[in-house]
Design brief:
Layout lengths: L1 H16 L5 E7 L11 E3 L5 E6 L7 E8 L6 E3 L20 E5 L7 H4 L10 H10 L7 E9 L6 E7 L6 E7 L13 E3 L6 E3 L9 H20 L7
Parallel strand pairs: 1-10, 2-11
Antiparallel strand pairs: 1-3, 3-8, 4-7, 4-9, 5-8, 6-7, 9-10, 9-11
């Protein structure tokens, strides 16, 4: 009996050692200063939403992960006046892919782990499909997870803009509290989003005008102004 008991204790210890010893939640919400726990939190306006940390500060950079419903679209993420943040650098925190497509049939896939990041959360494909169903959104055939690198630490709440991802997509975030950028985050220093505080896009995609479109619009308005100035005055009788 003692041998069996000791064996069970060893197995339990090994099981717990595989999980992060400590991980602070990064929450995504429309507007908040603390984790709402909406399981997930709806975001109807992606032009401005909040990303916050329930715990100690996380170092720079922070990853913003957009899980694009159905794939096929490359979203844009903006922060602090930068119109388009770059995809994350491979190798940062152990990242092995900054754009990964996962079939909806791969229900057991954990998002952060699939991207090469150490994690211990509940951000599985199964939960994403169930979360979409809560908002009356049918399961997609796949998700594409694009990882953007935000050049800031996280000490409270920051505002992020996203455009392009359709309804039913998800926003998550990942960071590290301490350590090297070029190695996996230590288990005790992980900051990540879990299922209860992911953001789910519930409105139509926000679009950002391309520079070429804005230039054509400006030229058109200028042409109208010139024609109006050059138009001769009508002869008065």
């Amino acid at each position: 009996m003692k041998i069996v008991f000791k064996t069970l204790l060893v197995i339990a210890a090994l099981g717990f050692s595989m999980l992060p010893s400590h991980a602070d939640q990064i929450f995504i919400c429309q507007s908040c200063t603390a984790a709402p726990g909406g399981d997930p939190n709806p975001i109807s306006n992606t032009g401005s939403f909040d990303v916050g940390l329930a715990g100690p500060s996380a170092q720079s950079p922070i990853f913003i992960v957009v899980g694009v419903y159905g794939g096929g679209v490359t979203p844009t993420v903006s922060f602090d006046g930068t119109p388009s943040e770059p995809l994350a650098t491979l190798g940062t925190y152990g990242l092995t892919s900054n754009s990964l497509t996962v079939s909806a049939s791969s229900t057991g896939t954990k998002i952060f782990q699939a991207l090469g990041l150490r994690s211990g959360g509940s951000e599985s494909i199964t939960n994403l499909i169930a979360d979409d169903a809560k908002f009356g959104i049918a399961a997609p055939s796949k998700f594409t997870f694009d990882v953007f690198e935000i050049p800031t630490g996280l000490h409270g709440v920051i505002s992020i803009d996203e455009s392009g991802a359709p309804k039913g997509s998800f926003i998550l975030a990942y960071g590290c509290q301490d350590g090297s950028r070029t190695a996996k985050c230590d288990s005790g220093d992980i900051s990540q989003t879990v299922n209860t505080n992911m953001g789910i896009l519930t409105g139509p995609p926000t679009t950002t005008p391309e520079p070429e479109s804005l230039l054509l619009l400006g030229l058109g308005l200028l042409s109208l102004a010139v024609l109006k100035i050059r138009r001769p005055a009508a002869n008065l009788i």
